[in-house]
């Protein structure tokens, strides 16, 4: 087995590992966004509706990172 064959087999699994690592960031981000929304609602219950709307917008932006990660895995990995 030469170096080119080894590199080709490693690059296929790097894309999978790369997307796995790219999914960790948005997961942590969504957890922080939801946690801070719950904390804000506990402190100011009258702002619950506004905070919930902002939470969904924050989740949408955070999940966009996951979509970029999976697109990158398809572009560079396959």
Describe this structure as you would to a colleague.
The protein has a single domain (13-76), classed as F1FO ATP Synthase (Up-down Bundle), CATH 1.20.20. The two termini are 22 Å apart. The chain is mainly α and 78 residues long. Helix 1 (3-43) runs antiparallel to helix 2. It has helices at residues 3-43, 48-77. The radius of gyration is 19 Å and the shape is elongated. It is built from two helices and no strands.
Poorly predicted runs: none
Strands, count: 0
- CATH homologous superfamily placement: F1F0 ATP synthase subunit C
Give the total of domains. Answer: 1
Helical segment count: 2
Shape: elongated
Which range does the strand content fall in? under 5%
State the end-to-end distance.
22 Å
Element string (H = helix, E = strand)? HH
The description of the largest β-sheet is:
none
Top CATH class: Mainly Alpha
CATH topology descriptor: F1FO ATP Synthase
Structural class, from secondary structure content? Answer: mainly alpha
CATH architecture: Up-down Bundle
Q: Mean pLDDT, as a whole number?
A: 81
Roughly how much helix do the residues carry, as a percent range?
over 70%
| Radius of gyration from the alpha-carbon trace, in angstroms | 19 Å
Subcellular location: Cell membrane
Family: Belongs to the ATPase C chain family.
Keywords: ATP synthesis, Cell membrane, CF(0), Hydrogen ion transport, Ion transport, Lipid-binding, Membrane, Transmembrane, Transmembrane helix, Transport
Protein name: ATP synthase subunit c
